[in-house]
Amino acid sequence: MKVLSLFAGGGLWDHGFTCSGYAEIDTAIEHSEMAMLNHQANYHHSTETQYKLDSVNAVLRRILTGDEPIKHMDCLIAGCPCQGFSGLNRHPDSEGSLRNCSLLATTLSWIETFMPAYAIIENLPRMMENRSPNEGKQAVCHLVALGYQVRTKVCEVAKFDGASKRKRLIIIAAAPGAVLPVSIDETSDPRACAVTMADLPPVHNDVTINILDPYHVPISRLKVSLQDEVSLRNVVQRIPTSPSGMSLSKAYYHGHLTPSQNKWFRTLNDNHQAKNSSRYRRIDPDKPFPTICTKIAPDSSANGEMMHPFEHRTISLREAMRAMDLPKNFLLIGTVAQQYGVLGNGVPYSLGAMLGRVVGKCWRATLGRGAGPPASTRNKESQTSVQLGLSVTVPNIAPRRHKRAIVLDEEDEKSDGNVSSTSDVVFLEAKPVKKNRLE
């Protein structure tokens, strides 16, 4: 199955999606050179992968104007930038945030241009929550209008053999005639982070070079702040390791800080002094890892849960890689901040691998439906969605569909199988409404 990867990033999703052997990345598009170098350093499933260091908007423009040819793709995967949908974004209405949100529309334009047999969109669950306008629901409606079968699900990575509490919205679209996954079943119970990093040796706060494991160094050193006249490493040492989940504010309100540290704490703003602040919070060892974000900010009141459960330091880059379920041979390129950014922008490896298996099995079942010689004599290597007529054909005149389609959500259909034997789109007989075209 040939895959077109938009917003390819460091290749975490692509690497996981193709590890089962059902698919290979034909073209990967990414605008960040450092992220693309990470992708190229790790993706070895195909030697013919074409990399395009450019904006998805610019590449699509060249295709639509005829400067580049339209290649046949069996599957399109897109992890649209999520900053515009993030609850941590303090400026959701800024130009940059709105531009990020608009890339979802760009993704739909790619799907409408290539009409692949399968399309998978990944983003934050907030994109589908009750908000106006609701971009996620509009995207689903657009896919249905194109004739696709659509299924949506919010996946918590820890319930799919993952190590983090990260939640992602997955939208899977299948062309008419292609098998749509009946469900995306949870495969495991949440795994405690203490189990995930149990075999890693202790690391001190001041370790900057680790010959045995270059990635196993703290992502941020705790230093002495001359301006605030406080030693952050001494402050963290005063944050107890038990009970679990202790933070700077909890240490203050429980009386664990020294008088000078108490005086410094009272100079912080109200958010940092709040009892529920996550500033310098220790990760709960009995729960999965928290979400790995793009910026290293242990002093953040909203995203500061980055302290080791038992050691007086931030988590290491290796531990962050474990949280993203990356294999040991996965390479990261760039500074520590750049490497951490690649992790924060990526899709956890276990989630990508699960999606690759689910869609791959449906793809194989779809190939089995095609006319031709019996399965025992059929050359499966040469079968494509073009030969089976799986690409969506859209008339050049409006309206595009003479029947209205309804999306079945996963809760609407209870089934124990992994693939659906029939289409999940119900077509209602309805006459199209003629509208005057704008000049």
UniProtKB/TrEMBL annotation:
GO MF terms, alphabetically ordered: DNA (cytosine-5-)-methyltransferase activity; DNA binding
GO cellular component: nucleus
GO biological process, any: methylation
Top enzyme category: transferase
Keywords carried by this UniProt record: Methyltransferase, S-adenosyl-L-methionine, Transferase
Domain of life: Eukaryota
InterPro entries, per the entry: C5-Methyltransferase, C5_DNA_meth_AS, C5_MeTfrase, SAM-dependent_MTases_sf
Entries under Gene3D superfamilies matching the protein: DNA Methylase, subunit A, domain 2, Vaccinia Virus protein VP39
Signal peptide interval: none
Active-site feature positions: C82
EC number: 2.1.1.37
Pfam families registered for this protein in UniProt: DNA_methylase
Family per similarity comment: Belongs to the class I-like SAM-binding methyltransferase superfamily. C5-methyltransferase family.
Protein name: DNA (cytosine-5-)-methyltransferase
UniProt source species: Knufia peltigerae
